[in-house]
Amino acid sequence: MISLKNVRKTFGDKIAVEGLNLEIKKGELFTFLGPNAAGKTTTIKMITGLLRPTSGEIFISGMSLYKQSEKVKKIVSYIPDFPYLYEKLTPIEMFMFFKDIYEMDVDLAKTKMEELLELFDLTEYKDILIENLSHGIKQRIVIALSFFHDPDVIVIDEPMVGLDPKTAKLVKTVLKENSKKGITIFLSTHQLGVAQELADRIGIINEGKLIACGTLQEIASLVEKKGSLEDLFLEITENK
Fold first, then answer.
1. Which of the residues 31, 163, 201, 218 has the least number of beta carbons within 10 Å of its own beta carbon?
2. Quick one: pLDDT at residue 222?
3. Which long-range CB contacts under 8 A does 34-39 form with residues at least 24 apart?
4. 159 and 61 in one domain?
5. At what angle do helices 106-119 and 91-101 cross, to 10 degrees?
6. What is residue 232's predicted lDDT score, i.e. its pLDDT?
7. Which domain holds residue 101?
8. What is the dihedral of CA 240, 52, 63, 72, to 10 degrees?
9. Both 69 and 159 in a single domain?
10. What's the rounded Cα separation, in Å, for the pair 147 and 129?
């Protein structure tokens, strides 16, 4: 579903990502880990089309991200770590704006919107200008919008930022349930407990290179050590 082939990204003389090869299957919940400045955000921006690789290719559902970008954008959602929304719109207006972007049927869009507003406990805020809402509410709106057009792929950067424990638990449940339904989820996070709880497979990047990839058990075997993902992460990244 997501395929990165020899992807490289440089900024002048600085190498941000080097020779990245990844294959993420349909319905897989893949978590992407790494220290600060390891290349996580650069990779996410390339997968979502916000940055072009210096070299290499990226495919989503068998389609070239750059040669078939319009088709790819219709099946992908992106949840950034900071919620970017039109502050002068209400949540309902944001949903209707997305409805137009994705050319959705009006009745279907309204039904889907009501379901998502209720699911993420946003109904009471639906007619309030977004500029007057808290960071946590805005993040819930962004997450709800990401499911609005029934994407095949969701790319997420730090989904739990600003969420209260109840909403964080709901988001984890929704992500896991949707991956079981066939949605491919690429999740980048510093919260290793979240990664360990959710991931089907884990990728660890450091200094622009993928240094480990697999299930928790497979990663543990690389360092011949048992323990939490936090223990394994520190062992791998500090010895590379």
1. 218
2. 78
3. 34/204, 34/205, 34/206, 34/237, 35/206, 35/237, 38/205, 38/206, 38/207, 38/208, 39/9, 39/205, 39/207, 39/208, 39/209
4. yes
5. 140
6. 85
7. 82-150
8. 110
9. yes
10. 21
Per the listing, tokens 């964080």 go with: 168
Strand segments (E) across 107-168: 153-157
Kindly state whether residues 68 and 97 are assigned to the same domain.
Answer: no
What type of residue is 197? E
- Are 15 and 128 within one domain? no
Q: 145 and 158: one domain? A: no
> Domain check: are 49 and 161 in the same one?
yes
Distance CA 71, CA 181 (A): 21
At 56, which helix (H) or strand (E)?
A: strand 55-60
Does 173 map to a domain?
Answer: no
Provide the domain count of the chain: 2
Q: How many C-beta neighbours within 10 Å does residue 48 have?
A: 21
Query: What is d(CA 144, CA 134) in angstroms, rounded to the nearest whole number?
Result: 15
> Closest by alpha carbon to 44, among 209, 205, 186?
186
pTM above 0.70, yes or no: yes
- Do both 110 and 65 map to the same domain? no
Q: What is the mean pLDDT of each run of 10 residues along the chain (240 residues)?
A: 96 95 96 92 94 96 92 92 90 96 94 96 96 92 94 90 86 93 94 90 94 89 76 79
**Do 143 and 38 fall into the same domain?**
no
Give exposure, 61-94, as e/b (b: 16+ Cβ within 10 Å): beeebeeeeeebbebbbbbbbebebeeeebbbeb
Q: What is the pLDDT of residue 158?
A: 83
Q: What amino acid is encoded at 126 in this protein? A: K
